[in-house]
Structures are given as C-alpha cells and as structure tokens.
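User: Assemble these into one structure.

Assistant: Restating your components, then the assembled model:
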Amino acid sequence: MTQPTLQPDFEGDFLLGGGAPFALESGSALPQASLHYAIYGKLNEARDNAILVCHALTGSARVADWWPDLFRDGHPLDVEKHCVLGINVLGSCYGSTGPQSVNPATGKRYGADFPVVSIRDIVRAQAELIEHLGIRQLRAVLGGSIGGMQALQWAVDYPERVAGCFSVGAAPLSAMGLALNHLQRENIRLDPAWLGGNYDPAAQPTRGLALARGLATCSYKSSALFTERFGRNPDRSGEDPRQSHAARYDVAGYLDYQGKIFNERFDANSYLVISRTMDTFDLARGHVSEADALKRIRARVLVVGISSDWLFPPADVHALAERIQNANAVCNYIELHSNHGHDAFLAEASNMRPLIEYIVQSGAPHAQEKDCVGCGA
Amino acid sequence: MTQPTLQPDFEGDFLLGGGAPFALESGSALPQASLHYAIYGKLNEARDNAILVCHALTGSARVADWWPDLFRDGHPLDVEKHCVLGINVLGSCYGSTGPQSVNPATGKRYGADFPVVSIRDIVRAQAELIEHLGIRQLRAVLGGSIGGMQALQWAVDYPERVAGCFSVGAAPLSAMGLALNHLQRENIRLDPAWLGGNYDPAAQPTRGLALARGLATCSYKSSALFTERFGRNPDRSGEDPRQSHAARYDVAGYLDYQGKIFNERFDANSYLVISRTMDTFDLARGHVSEADALKRIRARVLVVGISSDWLFPPADVHALAERIQNANAVCNYIELHSNHGHDAFLAEASNMRPLIEYIVQSGAPHAQEKDCVGCGA
C-alpha cells in the first residue's frame, strides 16, 4: 500500500539579498536571484529543530516527493518534532532562479548565458535563507550525490551553524565521472533543437537531453543491477536486435523510456548548469587547502559510500572521510552494501534510516569527543 | 626506438561466392560482397602454417598496423615461419564490403540500408576465403574484443579447421555494455549531419561519431587509468571549467581529441554496423544451445580476461571459459592484470606474447588430452 505523498506545510520563494545581485564563485553574478523552498513541520520557539535536506541533480525542494522513505512512520524525519527544509538549488528548473528565469538585465531568459554556479554558491544562497528564517544552527544537513556535496560544504563553510552532517555517495568527482558528465552535456549541445541554448522551453532539445539522461542512468546504476533486470533480453515490445538496426535490447528500451519521461520534467539548460556543479565540487575552494577547509568542521559527520557506486566509487568516498577524520573532525564512514549503484541513496533509502537517525539524534559532538577522534584514541 | 611498421607481403580483395549474393543471419543478403585481406609471410607447401588474426571494431586487415608488438623479434608471430592473415570484417570501412560500398542492386551506396551483420556472418565469409587459399586448418585464430568473438566463433563453427584459439576480452556483452553501445549509436543518429545514414562520405556526422568514440573510449579504459592520467586537472590548453561552461577538464579535452582523430579514419555507418555485431554475439546462434555449440570445439582454447575491463568484465569472460571447459574442450583461462581496461589487449599487448606463443606453438590438443579435461583429471 503506497502512502499518499506528504505535502509541505509551506512552500514559497525567497529573494536573495533583497533583490541585489548575487555574486558567484565563477566571477559572474546573477542580477537578481531567488530560492524556492518547502517546509515540512514547524520551527519550534528556540528554532533549533530544523533539518535541511539538500537535493541531488534533478531533485526539488519538495523533499518528501523524492525521499519519502525518510518520513515514513516519522523515522528518521518526524515532522511533529522536526522542521524539515528543502531548498531548490540555484540553476534548477524547480522554482529557484535558473536558465529559464528571465534575466532582469535583458528582459529575456538566461538560456545558455546562465553563469557557472558552484556547490559553494548554492550553499551560500541557502545560508542566507536559513539566516532569514532565524535559524542559528541546523540540527542536521543531509543529502546524497550533489546533495551530499552541499551537506559537506555546509559543514565546512558554516561550521557553527551545522550540528550534524550526513553525506552519501559524494566525493570530488573522478576523471571517469568528469568524462561521463562532459559527454552528457555534449549530447544536449549536439541536438539541433538546443539552438545554442536559446530554445523555447516548450520545444527543448528532447533527443539530446534523453541521451544525456540515458548515459547518466548508466552511471547511476550498476552493471549487476542491469544484468539482473534486463540481461540480454530483446526489448519487451518484441523487437529483434539481430534483424534490424532499429530494434533494441531491453536495456536500450529502458534507457530510451527514462530519457522520454525525463524530458517531461526537466530542462536541458538546467541540466548543463547543475551537472557542472558536480564537476567543480572541491572543498578546498575558497580555502587555503582541502585540509585547511576540513579543519573548520565542527559538525558530527557521517559519510556513506555505496558498494556498487561507480560514479562515486566507495574508495573515493572513504578516502574523503579519512581526510575529514585526519582534519580532526568527528567523522564516521559506513559502506552501504547494495547492487543499485549510485542510485541506492534513493532506491534503497530505507536502509539509511538508522544512519540518518544517528545524525539527527546526536547533535553536535562535545568538544572532548572531537578532540579524541583524529588523535587515534 | 620505434621499428618501422611491418608491411604485408600481399594485400588484396576476394569476391565471396564468385559474386553471388551473400546471405546473412539477419535474413537479409548482400547482393555481392568482397573481403579485403592482408598476408604477412608465406604459406608453406603443406599450407599448415597460417594464423588468422581477427581485428576489433575499428581495426583493419593490416594486423601489424594495430598489433605490432606481436611481430616484434618474431615472437609470437614469426613471419619467416608463419603465414599471418588479416581479413577486414564485413561492414567495415577498411576495404571489405560495407555501408560505403555501392549496392549493385541500386547503384547507390548502402548507407543506412546496409543490413545487420553478425560475428557468425563475418566468420563464415572469412572461412570461404581461407578455403579459397587452400588452408585446411588454421594453426591458430587470435583476436581481442570482437576479434576474440570471431576466434571463438571459428572454433565453434569450423572445429576441424582451427588448431588453436586465443580470445582476449570477449564474452556475450552484458546489459551495461548493450546500454553503452546503444547510446553510442544514438549519438551518431542524433547528429543532423547523419541524414538518416545517407550522408556524403566527405561530410559525415563528425560530432555524433566523435561523441560515440568518446563514450566508447570511456568503456575501453578504466577509471583508475583516467585518474592516473588526467585526475581532476583542467584541460591542458588552460581552460578553467570553474568559470565557463565551454571550458573542460583534461579528460574531456582528451575525449574530444580522440573523437576528432577518429573521424579522420572511420565511417559512422560502419560504426553502427560493427557495434551491433558486438551486441548480438552469442555462440548459441545457429546451434541448439550454447552448450551444444561449445561441444563442437576441437581447438585448444586460451581465454583471457582483463582485470580492469568493465566492458567485458573478467567475471563474464571467466564464466564463458568455464562453460567451454564444461563442454569438454581444452580451455584455459588467464586473467591479465592491468589498469588499462578493455584496451589492455592493445595497450599492453607485450604482456600477452607468451600466451599467444603458447597457442601458436601447441597446435590442436591430442584426443586423449581433450578427454581428460572436463572430467576433472
């Protein structure tokens, strides 16, 4: 029995800097920018019950839409007790300022002129909203993939404002990941309907975006899962790939379908912008070095790798966790066993409920505890 | 010091069936088909010193051009002693009948009308040429990737005509491999210059073919190799991917370059046709079952998996070797340790010299030896 999707108690928009330009790490600025956000539950009087959930590449502020398992039976996200916040990232097509927003400087949509945005920019914008909401410290910041990047960036850039940090399937992207992201973006640009980024939103480059999504889907899943689900079966419509070039194997039909439904909910230019934030994530940015950045962390951190993730291999995630530990932060690493690949943070979210509960319940580490970890005690 | 490339002692073309239509497994037929082939060394009088080397997706009949290491110091391929044959596959753009050939039935190039060809078709055509050359038994058939598929197909379909079979990085393609091949072909078809396959060869769909080659390159290499070579470095031309959407990381610049040089030497329609042969390879074809097919093998077989190959994972290659062993054939499996991925059969060919030497020197197994293997003795 499927439960009905939990609706936010509030959904609205926040104008950054009162409408002043929002400067970006790339050197550009958005003349005006706003964030779309959603709230589940209520802030308590002390405003210390807020949990920020950061979404991944194609997610939205409506956390319960894409991570419903975390709300089930009020565990780990109990909206009677906690105030759960979702904030759509800059560059997205789910309400915050993005490529399809009108640039007030020109009166036209940004399109391909939308500047390069970083995870750090996204988090800085979020921090402004969190401050506006009167929240001095977030009980926890959670996320997977680029959501996990945001959670870590929060812990580094706003150490006093985060008690707990949960990041799954996130690390600096490897060369193979950079390669696959590049090819995905090129798929979009190859589609003649892209028109240099200046397409009408009603006629976006669907073929290129579908191919990008297809390749991304390969990188989000695992070979074992594909073998289990599709094997070498021909497409279920009855095509015979041994006879005709147009006929497909089942896995190809699946990818095409994933691409098709993706076109109905996502914008190609947003894809270009947010995919790039995954590439450029680097906790060293704005600090002397990564080690220097990590030393700032005051939150209790839980870093989770996924055994079959080949976009963010567990070895890379583990290595990042070790660098955080070496920087003297309270950080645990756990590897989630799954054959779902990177996507396990969504497909098998249930398995992470105790892990997130640990972060939500624990609060910030005591100073003494912090000192003990990292010195090997 | 680089040695000059060994030149073939003979290079020519062979008309299949004396110009009669060549029937294909897909149910179609080529109205007329010829094979381009190269010979290094000379057939001895007994015509029992021939070694057929089958090329991979983008290779050619000129074996020494792409597998020079195997000829170095006459080891394992000694052209004073052996007669080494290379035959370009049907569908290729290196001389055999392919999509850019003129269809005698229409007087126009085949283009996208070129039919689906299988590994089995390719091998049957080769067998006709081998017969024409008066060779009753090949001392060995060797190959990697779809070359390895051809070698195995030879051992199954022409058991009495193959003494030794060497196959590296080949197995029935997994669902992930089918997915990646599908996306590559879609890349080509997405390029407006593809024109439904009817482009002028001088104006082929370079962007789509380059993207296909880029994705294929990812599948041929390993994540570890990319990390070692490119890491997270920006493109060597000085681009800054943190500032501009057009700027690339080094690995992206590398893929673009690979795509660019590939365009100068390969045809997009040939790519579509030969990529499909990789998909459809299945030794059961034309036989009651795979087990039934494998029972036909009389050659000594050496199957090699590559530790970091994720297009043909060593587990899949090993499993195929075990099925061959279970079918009572003399078959050994060896795993080559390399971080070069699938490409190791070319990039680290030197490491395979003793393995190929074993197959070239051994000849067919004795009946008794054959009986012993498989019964666990």
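Confidence is low (pLDDT under 50) at residues 371-377 of chain B.
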